[in-house]
Amino acid sequence: KMKEIEESIDKETVTLDGERVYLHLNIGGRLDITQVSRKRPDGIGLLRTELIYMDAVEFPNEEKQKKIYENIAREFEESQPNKPIVIRTLDIGADKKLSYYKMVDEENPSLGCRGMRLTLADKNLFKNQIKGILRAATHHNIKMMYPMITNLKEIIEAKDLVEECKKELLIEGKEFKENIEVGMMVEVPSNVMLADIFADYVDFFSIGTNDLTQYILATDRYSPIAEKLYDCYDPAVIRAINMVSSAGLRKNKKVSVCGEMAGENQAVIALLSLGIRDLSMAPAYIPKVRNLIRKIELSELKEIKIKLLKSKDSQEVKNILNEYLEIIE
Ligand code: PEP
Ligand code: MG
User: Fold this and answer.
1) Which helix (H) or strand (E) holds 133?
2) Can you give the pLDDT at residue 104?
3) Any idea where the PEP-utilising enzyme C-terminal domain is (predicted)?
4) CB neighbours of 181 closer than 8 A, spacing ≥ 6?
């Protein structure tokens, strides 16, 4: 098995029927370049910027952010030229805290001021990061993405702030990318129900199944109870992914999945059957997933999709996926 995975590392990421699937990296604040070049990812699908802020002793300013993003991009491009890098704006709150920033005390932090809610409440914080990203994107294939969006108003507010940043950069005579692509993470059930509407306001979706599972099932992903209830194979989550995938298809917007499940064999089968062609995962999973994709016959997944969407519980979902896995492996 290891040998098989090792051998497929230099091959194309295509299914048996020749459909290309794109494998991207999830990375924290730093890039382990030795990891990257051998794995030949199609891009960075999720650059979590929290670690950059957590490593600092105060909010990194615009200039510092620009440098950090440029350094990561340069390093990445050394082995993977021209491939896209998606920078996610700061997603602190709930489980992620900063030593130099006092957060409001809340009864339910994961339902409270986190992600975009926090950055939109502190416009300077948001604008510093946006300006850093816009400037770093001048000479690199950088896109940006918002975490934890609840409603359209937030997207519109963010859009206005980005325009404000561009105007300021223009006046300051700094180079930046005018037409940067902007996407949103799908992490809140409202995003799923209104996916066709959100699709008109963003360039792409990336489904954050870690949080989406927690919010669909109303189960804290870090709580002890999670062992019993928190399950990304719950058919409610599967249907949610399907809804977003179909909305994306209808609206011609790319939908990727960047939650942990994107690196799991069973989930890869499920996601491909639901029409997902873009996965983003920790670097270590890339070779294994590439090897698996090369054994999948997409036409055989039609039946699986129908079965998944009729499943009653996560056990049924997993049985369907495991059965197919056993056949192809
Ligand atoms: C997610 O929620 O699925 C996700 C990728 O974001 P994070 O794990 O950083 O919350
Ligand atoms: Mg998340």
Assistant:
1) helix 123-136
2) 84
3) 5-297
4) 143, 144, 203, 204
pTM, two decimal places: 0.97
> Alpha carbon of 132 to those of 68, 125, 151, 183: distances in Å?
9, 11, 25, 17
* 211 has binding-site annotation: yes
DSSP 231-275: -TTSHHHHHHHHHHHHHHHHHT-EEEE-SGGGGSHHHHHHHHHTT
Nearest alpha carbon to residue 7 among 297, 288, 329, 325: 288
Q: How far from each other are the two terminal CA atoms of the chain, in whole angstroms?
A: 9
Contact 13, 42 (CB under 8 A): yes
Q: Which of 306, 250, 254, 315 lies closest to 280 in space, CA to CA?
A: 254
Complex ipTM, two decimals?
0.99
Q: How far is the CA of 208 from the centre of ligand 2 (A)?
A: 5
Best residue among 185, 207, 213 to mutate for probing ligand 1's pocket (most ligand atoms within 8 Å of CB) is: 185
Residue owning tokens 């109303």 = 218
